[in-house]
Design goal:
about 250 residues, alpha/beta, three-stranded mixed beta sheet, 11 helices, about 45% helix
């Protein structure tokens, strides 16, 4: 494990896995592989807190020049979504402590958790349409499960920001706390889970999640294909350029 991911014993039965590439914690396939390995290494725990160092939980996927995903594939050739699915397949309840921005892939990462703790300043953003391409990271499945189909459609098609208070109201966040209390509150919630009967908790979780991992895997296949297709368009190039230049995009539909 490198210094990019911190793994600690946060409380009895509770592991802390923290992304450590501040301030934005941009993810690529290699970094996400480290996160997945860290989470899997805590399989003997009763709950895991997924957190991040720095200003933002995760501000999205790393992009290369021209907007292509810089790390969409790891050194072994696996796509970032082939790694992401492991977060849905692992058996331990996950509580995400989400500060700052959870954008794009960062939103997908937050929604891989079972529960989310946020602050009033937290921003959840599915900004894909504003960049000119398709959402990913299984959001086709996880976002509707959290907020409902209609609200998910609105958020994905507009790309608008959702603050912490609204996130609590619509189901993106499960608890809202002060900034200074974020990680302690997430650990406390995970400790509540850890205090319950572990066999019962895992059984309940399996029932509630059902075929979630398989549904996410199927969705990622479609998402990935559409991302690859739309990344070849002029709209995608414009969306990325506009984001870098901090201006409204002028999309042409081609």
């Amino acid at each position: 494990m490198s210094d990019s991911v911190i793994v600690e014993q946060a409380a009895p039965g509770v592991a802390l896995v923290a992304l450590n590439r501040p301030p934005a914690n941009f993810v690529d396939a290699a970094f996400l592989e480290e996160v997945a390995v860290a989470v899997e290494s805590a399989a003997d725990q009763r709950a895991i807190v997924l957190a991040a160092e720095g200003k933002h939980f995760c501000a999205g996927a790393a992009l290369a020049g021209g907007g292509a995903h810089a790390g969409s594939r790891g050194a072994d050739g696996r796509h970032i979504y082939d790694v992401a699915i492991r977060l849905f397949e692992q058996p331990v309840p996950l509580v995400a402590a989400v500060q700052g921005s959870a954008i794009g892939a960062g939103l997908g990462l937050a929604l891989a958790a079972d529960l989310r703790v946020a602050t009033a300043g937290t921003r959840f953003v599915a900004s894909f349409a504003l960049l000119g391409f398709h959402h990913g990271f299984g959001l086709s499945v996880t976002l509707p499960r959290a907020v409902g189909a209609q609200k998910a459609a609105e958020l994905l098609m507009t790309g608008r920001r959702v603050g912490g208070t609204e996130a609590l109201d619509i189901g993106l966040a499960d608890r809202l706390v002060a900034d200074a209390d974020l990680r302690p509150a997430a650990i406390a919630l995970a400790s509540e889970i850890a205090a319950a009967a572990p066999l019962a908790v895992r059984s309940i979780r399996q029932t509630l999640r059902g075929d979630l991992a398989e549904a996410v895997r199927t969705a990622m296949t479609r998402e990935r294909a559409e991302q690859d297709r739309l990344m070849q368009t002029r709209d995608f190039a414009e969306g990325v350029a506009a984001a870098k230049e901090r201006r409204p995009p002028a999309f042409e539909g081609r």
